[in-house]
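Proteins fold. Shown next:

***
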Amino acid sequence: MGAAAGSEKSKNTLLKRMYRDRQYYLLLIPGFLLTFIFKYLPMGGLVIAFQEFNIFKGILNSPWTGLENFREVFSSHDFTRVFRNTLLISLYKLFAGFPIPIVLSLMLNELKNRIFKRSVQTIIYLPHFISWVIISGMMLSFFSPVTGAINTVRDFFGMARMTENFLTKANTFRGFLVVTEIWKECGWNTIIYLAAISTVDQSLYDAAKVDGAKKLRQILHVTLPCVSGVIVILLILSIGFMMDAGFDQIMALQNDLVRDVSDIFDTFTFRKGISGGRYSYTTAVSMFKSIISLILILGADRFAKLIGEEGLI
């Protein structure tokens, strides 16, 4: 009887809070609708991974093939190559790119001149708003061996011309992807870290100064421990998105000479599914990719909790 009364009271309290904050809940409705329409409704189309889907017959009338598409996927040499490329490119970006916004935000936080600080922030934020299509054109203009801006500058200073294009060399293309990704996004990612750093209690720094801690020790023993929760959450999210590896970037910069080392799941499914019409096959590939992403984010969250962090889920 007491438990039922307590449950009813808790329910009434929740309803009262929801009614009190009804304006805020109304603001959430468009976001929920967009997520439901574009993220959850399309999940029904996953059934074509188990069919020989015919666009003219539709999902209901296309013949079922069971796990045949998955057998073809896992026995394909293309799948092995694409899986390897996706993992390598994502790992390169994670290990090289994830720490840089943290370091940048720590450096920006130490700047005392507000005008200079805001100027630097604006400069490093700007690349985020440039599309990869424009960036690919810029890179082609810079690195072209014939008319590139870099060779123009080298000619001006009497230096030997650069005869190779990084965008067409298989052994440098992945590194080029990592560098351009860091250049474009590292400034934007500092926003969250700077916001987290601004919430650190100033008295902790004062206590550290009393104990004789210099700037580096204050950062190591005050700032980083206070924002470690934010760092862990963003790391978990980054691990969860590893299977994406940057479709827009690779699609814009990729060419036939580097496809063997840059073809990832999304570019592969776009080429085979949209351009080639193999909808069932590429849906099976995408389904596998989604399952791996789920395993990665759950594993990362579990590991974070094991080491004493709050985690995401």
The chain has two domains: 1-46, 79-306.
